[in-house]
């Protein structure tokens, strides 16, 4: 399933120096022993660093490897199955590390954004007829996908994933990162750093690919009952007869209070957007002397419904009396970066 929804804001986000960040997982694999990550493929007996690995059909221990890489130190390598997965023959390979300390429910108060980041090597598998893909997914305890990324090794196509409300029904959709509602294709033989953030307070998913100057937010389904229980890496083979490795490094999971949205650390908590829900006039103010340059308003289909320029003012207003009832995303461009706010029009 895919959707023509795309990230309508393109900017370079810095995600460093996050205030009040609570580290849940922080892995660079450098203190691991070269060789097999685990000696169990049932997902029940922890291996190195308490990692769990699972292959339902077939599989072997070397499918999950700690390897030395010249420029990165140790890295994690997961190899896709040689046998294509089907509904009755699930040969997919999974690796994950459980969240510590009781998981997401025991995070620090107010840290309501789950942030996942990692680096992966795009590789050089561009063989015709070999259709393999790798994923990093955050899911609920019953396996429902909340958000994540998918990389296709044959073409280099890279997509986001989350659930959207389509005609009133929640449905898992691919998020396209290319311009003009197109796919993004990454260069081969390149290390790429990516992030996604799940904002439980505002029902948003942020996707970021700094090397491509791509970032933005997508309104997702209500997340109230979709608590993250598992964050896993997975490799799948859909077509072909060769194993395709994928390498990962610098894998981090954290709970944060707010998303940092520019190199100058403009935070969503610096701004007040009210009233929300709104009938007509929305006030946008801040006490940090951050100057507003432009505001764009998008509907849930990423259609631009309003653009308004401002002469570097810290307190501004926009009129949404013309808009239909529903949920909208406000993209606020300032002299220090861009931030996002979700509002509801009565």
UniProtKB/TrEMBL annotation:
InterPro entries associated with the record: Secre_tail
One Pfam family of this chain: Por_Secre_tail
Bilayer-spanning residue ranges: none
Signal peptide start and end residues: 1-21
Record's keyword terms, sorted: Signal
Sequence ranges assigned to domain Secretion system C-terminal sorting in this UniProt record: 273-343
Protein name: T9SS type A sorting domain-containing protein
Species for this entry: Paenimyroides baculatum
């Amino acid at each position: 399933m895919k959707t023509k929804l795309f990230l309508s804001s393109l900017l370079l986000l810095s995600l460093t120096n996050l205030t009040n960040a609570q580290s849940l997982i922080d892995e660079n694999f450098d203190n691991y022993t070269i060789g097999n990550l685990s000696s169990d493929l049932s997902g029940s007996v922890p291996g190195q660093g308490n990692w769990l690995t699972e292959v339902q059909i077939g599989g072997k221990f070397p499918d999950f490897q700690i390897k030395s890489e010249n420029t990165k130190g140790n890295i994690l390598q997961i190899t896709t199955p040689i046998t294509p997965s089907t509904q009755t023959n699930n040969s997919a390979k999974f690796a994950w590390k459980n969240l510590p300390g009781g998981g997401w429910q025991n995070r620090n108060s107010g840290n309501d954004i789950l942030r996942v980041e990692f680096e992966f090597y795009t590789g050089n598998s561009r063989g015709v007829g070999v259709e393999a893909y790798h994923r990093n997914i955050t899911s609920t305890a019953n396996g429902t996908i909340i958000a994540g990324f998918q990389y296709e090794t044959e073409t280099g196509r890279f997509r986001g994933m989350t659930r959207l409300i389509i005609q009133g029904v929640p449905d898992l959709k691919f998020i396209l990162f290319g311009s003009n509602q197109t796919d993004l294709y990454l260069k081969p033989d390149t290390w790429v750093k990516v992030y996604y953030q799940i904002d439980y307070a505002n029902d948003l998913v942020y996707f970021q690919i700094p090397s491509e100057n791509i970032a933005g937010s997508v309104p997702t389904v209500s997340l109230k009952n979709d608590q993250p229980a598992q964050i896993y890496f997975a490799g799948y083979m859909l077509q072909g007869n060769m194993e395709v490795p994928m390498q990962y490094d610098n894998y981090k999971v954290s709970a944060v209070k707010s998303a940092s949205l520019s190199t100058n650390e403009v935070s969503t908590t610096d701004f007040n957007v009210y009233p929300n829900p709104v009938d007509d006039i929305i006030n946008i103010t801040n006490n940090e002397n951050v100057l507003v340059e432009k505001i764009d308003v998008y509907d849930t289909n990423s259609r631009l419904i309003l653009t308004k320029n401002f002469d570097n003012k810290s307190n501004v207003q926009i009129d949404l009396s013309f808009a239909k009832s529903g949920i909208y995303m406000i993209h606020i461009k300032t002299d220090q970066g861009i931030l996002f706010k979700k509002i509801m029009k009565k």
